[in-house]
Amino acid sequence: MSANLFDILSRSITDAAATAIETLAGDRITYADLVVRTGQMANALVGLGVKPGDRVAVQVEKSVEAIILYLATVRAGAVFLPLNTAYTVAEVAYFIGDAEPALFVCDPARVADFAAIADKTGARLVTLDANGKGSLSDAAVTARPDFATVPRNADDLAALLYTSGTTGRSKGAMLTHGNLVSNALTLCEAWRFNKADVLIHALPIFHTHGLFVATNVTLLSGASMVLLPKFDAGLILDLMARATVLMGVPTYYVRLLESARLDSAATARMRLFISGSAPLLAETHREWQARTGQAILERYGMTETNMNTSNPYEGDRVAGTVGLPLPGTEVIVTDPDNGAPLAQGEIGMIEVRGPNVFKGYWRMPEKTAAELRANGFFITGDLGRIDDNGYVHIVGRAKDLIITGGYNVYPKEVEAEIDDIAGVLESAVIGLPHKDFGEAVTAIVVPSGQPVLTEADIVVAIEGRLARFKRPSRVIFVDELPRNTMGKVQKNVLRDRFAGSV
Ligand code: AMP
Fold it and tell me: Would 29 disulfide with which of 33, 226, 322, 411, CB 3.0-4.6 Å?
């Protein structure tokens, strides 16, 4: 039987008249519509020359049509390659050159930017705008709706997602039908998704979180989603009156907490708040619970592996942890130097294995061999530990580890102490080159305004709380921390900006 994600989705439809996707502009797409419109789009793709295994590169605004394009690409047996809408022409040129797609779908406003790139690589260029209009949708509207979904094996590629690499070349993670289906089914179960659910979908759809976690989980459980073009605290609060689940990055929760409208009455109908893609501060978790009476469920995953761990639906959702390994996924902690397993509780490299783990990096066999072991474990690049209750704690990316005077300093430990000081909104701790220590621990702090703090105040406040080698040798105040679209603090930007300050 075909393992095509779309076949599995269409087999799971029990109520074709139910809403799958709606927008605030009044669009309502039922599951029956989804089958028809992905069929038309798949026929349009084939008409444009897309064959099974071909890549379809897509840099478009979020829209219903963009989701239909994703599903139709998968239906046609092709490989969906979403690109961040913020990518510049030079960045896009690299991805198109590397992936060699048969088709490149872009916003009509950017055709002039990309025509030469498409020409050079032989990709056909078509358009789709934020309202779902363009030469691609024109082709789909007139296409036939019946389309025989191309059978795929679990091992065949469904998507190619480039990692948001901050150093070196971005790598294309090859995700199979089996990866996407297994993870979505696991999450449906773990988070008790069902037909009555209405997801507030505010995440971008060029990233694993909004594209796979949010979309696949909703559709495979027969639930519905309200598609918002982007995060909007006011709209999300309005929607909470009739929705049941929100998936967000930590920044969403921080922004929602700034609204006086957020309280237990506003969230009474919601059954689940999920956070991931970046660390959720324990303080945000606690504040949310105090204001709404609900505990945010934090989970951990990445482009290469889909989701690996989750706090439990029933049971303790422990602030500051990413929860327990999901069923079917193994999580171990190893010595970063030699890969040997470490004793429970020790900090080391997090490695994961399971049907959720990708197939390797596109056309980069050496990188694949370096990060994906022959025994199936993927070396995530995240440092962490597993506590006595089996909960996984992430302490940061290995590349953000600070080595000062020969000692390891895990930034998160220092950040947690600084964040606890009254007058601190948040902080990022980085290592800056230092002639004596190799690296000097440096704290970049965003003050909350009250009380007003000096560098000395911070140093004094943590004096008794951290060993001397962990304490920052400099504290630098900034108005805000640089973040990418998924809410991750860009420590590389801070390291560049403050190099030479210690
Ligand atoms: P991406 O591939 O863009 O999804 O980024 C994956 C990385 O985001 C992981 O390797 C982690 O470093 C980080 N990440 C994702 N979820 C969490 C979380 N809940 N807590 C801390 N870091 C996270």
Answer: 33
